[in-house]
Amino acid sequence: MIRHIGSDLESFKTLDFGPGLNVLLADKSDGATDRQSRNGAGKTSFIDIVHFLTGGKAGPDSIFRSDELINSTFDMQMDVGGEEITVERSGAAPSKVYLNGPVEDWPIPPKFDEERGVFTLSNVNWTHSLGAKWFGLDAPPDTDIKFQPTFRSLFSYFARRQSSGAFQSPTQQASMQAVWDQQVAISYLLGMDWTISQGFQGLREKEKVVKSLGKAARSGELGPHFGRAADLRTKLAVVSRRVEQVREQLNSFEVIPEYSALETEASEITRAINALGEENFVDRRLISELDAALKEEEAPDSADLAKLYAEAGVILPELVKRRLDEVESFHQTIIENRRSHLGAEHVSAEKRIEDREAKKQILDARRRQLMEVLQSGGALEQYTAMREELGRAESEVETVRQRLETAEMLESTKADLDTDRNRLSQALRDDIHERNDLLNEAIVSFEDLSQSLYEQAGSLTIDAGSAGPTFEVKIDGQRSKGITNMQIFCFDLMMMELSTNRGRSPGFLIHDSHLFDGVDERQVAKALQVGAERAASCGFQYIVTMNSDAIPSEGFKGGFDINAHVLPTRLTDATEDGGLFGLRF
């Protein structure tokens, strides 16, 4: 229950509330519209103040951060957990609130501000505390749990705002409110198992992911082998084996610091051995030629020359014969000298070959020694390259593993999702069956309320749909804004009654004047009277903001006096200081 709303803004009009029905009235001058300024007379701003002081967002475009209000502090005295608490908050420091009252033992204990003599709490923890005190939520909530009821999602059903599109559907407290949030919040407030609605949203999230992955896989965006788990399983085995091999090589690898120098020496030895071999080849060829030459070096026989001349009929004189003998002797000498020279060359060549072979053996021995060292390890660069190769291979293994998991999920998830949906649907049917009495109470309450307004009662249908619980509200009649608004009125009042009975409510319900737009005067009168009667019988507070010209002049029954519920503070847009803030901006 809200008891008091005030501000240190001197022109602000203090509001004091009592139990039951409270009507905040605004006198609207002829031709005036709410678009004349940001705050008009202040009926909607009153609801903005309630949200602001219960931890609502205060972004840069909030009126509480406007130049006219940012230095003003607003306060509200209200019942929280059976205790009277006063909360203060300003647009200049919207991230914290100041509390006055017995709050020391709250789930999130506020800190005591010695300077101000009050407690202080962050705005986030303030909403968590209100969620715990008013709705029985955990404070602080488990942030690892997705799609759970929150203070704001529940509270907004008790203080709808026109600026959030709250008057479009009974089950939707804001135009941007997601279906899952509606299902979770309403299930929680009606006493149903809200975790089933949570489960359906989790299922929708999985289906969304599977659908996106399936689309990407079919389009080839995830690679040519993404869609087949069998192919990826084979690829994973191959790349995993490669990782093991590289890892084994690394484990046995020995880094040789002088590896490059030894490798260079081994290469130079190889080149030297090859050069010696080539030189031996040349000398062996020379020896072969020398052997041939030695065989051909024979002195010609002078008797053969004499015989040739005789056959030709030439008689050689004795002097010529003597000279031939001398020539033969000279020639023989030359032949012997040449044979001696060739023999020396032959020996020299063989000696060179022998020396080279000996040198080759020495070089070859050194090369074998070097190769043994080189084969036992490698250079640091090689080790580094192998580690990089291992990292690349391990990365490929992880990539393939993730793709395999996704592919397996794609192949198996559809069946799993169908199973989960069937399980949730059955759980929802069981929950509705088990809570039949509780839901019947809501259904009957809505019917009674709608029958209080119209001759033919409306209906609230709660069913187990394939996508979660459905809450269908109907009031027969022509589709009009007025009928929709009265559906919202009946739905909100029903929720307020049940929540109050279950101890899960803020203790007040606020309806903005927009709720009565387009509603027949007689229905407005009935709604106000029904609201007052239900508030009195159930023990909650019902606050309505209205323009004075929208107050019905007739339609009330049993001597009901609406003026007895009008707050003494009246707002007006006729003067600059007649609005709630006492100033226009």
Automatic annotation (TrEMBL):
Recorded coiled-coil stretches: 229-279, 383-410
Entry-linked InterPro entries = ABC-3C_CTD10 (IPR046919), DUF2326 (IPR018760), P-loop_NTPase (IPR027417)
Domain ABC-three component systems C-terminal: from-to ranges: 288-411
Record's superkingdom? Bacteria
Per UniProt, residues of the DUF2326 domain are 449-585
Alphabetized UniProt keyword annotations = Coiled coil
User: Keyword Manganese, does the record have it?
Assistant: no
Protein name, as recorded: DUF2326 domain-containing protein
Its source organism is Sulfitobacter pacificus
